[in-house]
Amino acid sequence: MQEIDSTQLIYAVDLTGTFVFAVSGWLIASKKELDFFGASVIAFITAVGGGTLRDVLIGSQPVGWMADLNYLVAILAGIVAAIFFKRLFEKLRKTMFLFDSIGIGLFTILGLEKTLSFGLSPVVAIMMGTISAVFGGVLRDTLVNEIPLIFRKEIYATVCLSGGILYWLMGILEVNADLQIILTIIYIISFRILSVVNNWSFRAIK
Amino acid sequence: MQEIDSTQLIYAVDLTGTFVFAVSGWLIASKKELDFFGASVIAFITAVGGGTLRDVLIGSQPVGWMADLNYLVAILAGIVAAIFFKRLFEKLRKTMFLFDSIGIGLFTILGLEKTLSFGLSPVVAIMMGTISAVFGGVLRDTLVNEIPLIFRKEIYATVCLSGGILYWLMGILEVNADLQIILTIIYIISFRILSVVNNWSFRAIK
Amino acid sequence: MQEIDSTQLIYAVDLTGTFVFAVSGWLIASKKELDFFGASVIAFITAVGGGTLRDVLIGSQPVGWMADLNYLVAILAGIVAAIFFKRLFEKLRKTMFLFDSIGIGLFTILGLEKTLSFGLSPVVAIMMGTISAVFGGVLRDTLVNEIPLIFRKEIYATVCLSGGILYWLMGILEVNADLQIILTIIYIISFRILSVVNNWSFRAIK
Fold it and tell me: Which Pfam families match (chains A, B, C) (predicted)?
């Protein structure tokens, strides 16, 4: 997943995103009647589900996390952290939200770049970027037997899609690569914060 | 997905099938508490889910719709049409049913041919043809948290399976390729109409 | 799936495992409001789901059961047997449980070996072995709209994971290959029997 390694920073943030997704997966699973093992599996799937689907669809196998054990270490750390600091995480909602937003921003960009590197079109790349960011959560919700959150309330995926488009447009305009990444992340964080603060959502169809 | 291009007609009908599947996916999703985005995703998955699973299982990656943007255009058109002409589509149930039947017939044949072209056996090809036709609907139902329709009431898949066998037998008997396609489609449409008119279904197991 | 063919016995037990999984899939599906076709699909998915996911993730396509029709024959036999001997199977719970345990043991080992043969790390191989053994059941439960059993009550997967670790350790210690397989199977059977007898399970998280 180090397709863009303009800096080591990105790799670190990607691992951080994986860690945060594992934590959030575990916290959500722990509200269901799941045992320790089940919750860990859900945490794992939440963290790698998106990238795995992307890799399988574009034909990049073995899928990303299999080739670099650091992803498994990040997930394990997320599970351990969720177990020991459950209350802390529930208090630090805002911090978690920030990390989660950075995570989906990075996942969107990494997924987009990887898809382009396979010679596919920008439209498909933007979709794959979004899938990388959101599909883990979709799987998580489906496995705990709920209609995925993303299909019901939030404009979560819209943030990724529009962030992907923004990122791609900046690429066309030959914006500096670091700036391109930073601006996209800032855009995604701002959009998500605004949408939560203002309670934005698409109306359910009647 | 243009493995059989004995005519441009087939390509056009394949795109039409994709369009119709997107419409039906959107209409079904719109009855659930889904927002605009969620319903669009369900429409997309309904349209490409079957072909995607087939391509991943036989190892044809990147999967079909990624390589030809016309499929995305057909889906987008289906979503737009479903939004603006929702009532019309609900009135035109019979026309929709006809298109849907043509769609599953074509998807069955295309899936079967593509699988054979990968050197797999006819039995597997008939299964993959059926998966191409029905799996989109299975995913749609699973995502909106219902036991897939296909597992409960309809003999939908039986139509595809038997249609696939018919198509394959005609291939063995060296029937003219166009005739082979047309007869299979007619068989599938007739079988589905008869099954709906007569309310055929397998009994639930007790 | 004949990666380890130290004996024809393993191939036979693999097919037996497939048969048993198909039977158990059909029996569970038959308690839901599924028609004959739906129950057969669930039986099929239960039997091949794990190996299919493993093959797709590691990039071994077309997936295993497509290349060897004996797997389809074993599944068909399982479905036919489940239909005709439903009551018998329900009486023979203990025998079924034994076969099922042998099945998951074998599936774990075969999945682990296949993953190693693709040059992936032992940690990933143990995970893939476990996925081979348990994912069919996860899919089955998800499709019939339940939170997968494995996430709720049983320590099913723990058995596979620890069995995989044991098998791998014996490999490091250069234990004779046949012995390695037999001891792993005995371990898995014993662990499962003990866990059921003693009603072991992880507590649900509160």
Answer: Gly_transporter
